[in-house]
Amino acid sequence: FSRGAEEISWKIEEILEELVQHQEPESLQSYLEKALESSLHPLGKLLRALTVAFQATYSGIGANRHLLPMAQEEVKFYSKKIWEFYQGLLRLALERKGRAPSVDADPSLGKGSSLVLPLILPGFYPELSMLYMLQHQREDELYCQGIVELSLFPDIQLLEFLDVQKHLWPLKDLTLTSNQRRSLIKDKCFLSATECLQKLITTVDPREKLEILRKTYEELERTASRLLGADYRLPMDDLLPLLMFVVSRAKSVEFFPPLEYFRVEEFQGKLLGFGVGCVGIQHLGAEIHLIRDLMDPTNQGGMLDFLLTALESCYEHIQRIRLHPKENSHSS
């Protein structure tokens, strides 16, 4: 028994020693990531306990869209508590070495929960994503109907319909074969930006989703600069129709998170079931709201926030597009 206690004590000493060695911002994130993945580390044990509790609350009959605000706040609360637990362990480690905790901590680490949140989000993603899809199911259905309407247009007709300035039409990209007409070619314009935006659902991290959105914008500017033969900054009036074009041409790429994220069979079934028949990015409304709710607060009011607002505007406009209105519906 005493030997077992010594082994446990030795492991704790090792953990506390590592904590002291990874206080610098450059290594802290990497350390936290490994600690949270470990079933032996106190941080990893805490995360697993919270994950089980979250799953029990919000899966099955708990998958109710009205519970989304509660679930979202719960995940944020978990990130704060995990950060506080880390700080408590660090204080203990420093005290055992006879060192006082640093008063002049790096200001960038002042909101450590923002550092923790993206690291723990994958563990809560199945239930949380399901609640977002349920909450925004109706808007996503309208968006899919609009995407279907826009998908009927060849590239040139779609550029014209969306009022894209003619000097920004990438006609040189429309290479023809002997049996093709330029006016009928589809899925050839702004390909680099479209392929970039399609990656939006290949990550669960709001930071990475926003970075994908930034790269999509940069690809649009790069294409515009190439067409005009000079560096070109897209004003809002040009950006929105171009982004609308890219959103309407983007497809849902296959994405399956690691198997441990699929804790419940119904998650995979519902995830694949909602939005079937939508040729665009499935559940785009759920994606936009998840990013908005869980992104780093320091991005609010900045360039990434602006791009997210632009994407949201495109999403809302596409919902209203009806070129072939059904009975008792209004065309846009």
From TrEMBL:
Ranges annotated as spanning the membrane: none
CC annotations in GO: cytoplasmic vesicle
GO molecular function terms attached to this record: guanyl-nucleotide exchange factor activity; small GTPase binding
Coiled-coil regions, chain positions: none
InterPro entries reported for this sequence: Alsin, VPS9, VPS9_dom_sf
Gene Ontology terms describing biological process: endosomal transport
Domain VPS9 positions: 152-327
The organism's place on the tree of life at top rank: Eukaryota
PANTHER family hit by this protein: ALS2 C-TERMINAL-LIKE PROTEIN, ALSIN HOMOLOG
Protein name as catalogued: VPS9 domain-containing protein
Taxonomic source organism: Chloebia gouldiae (Gouldian finch)
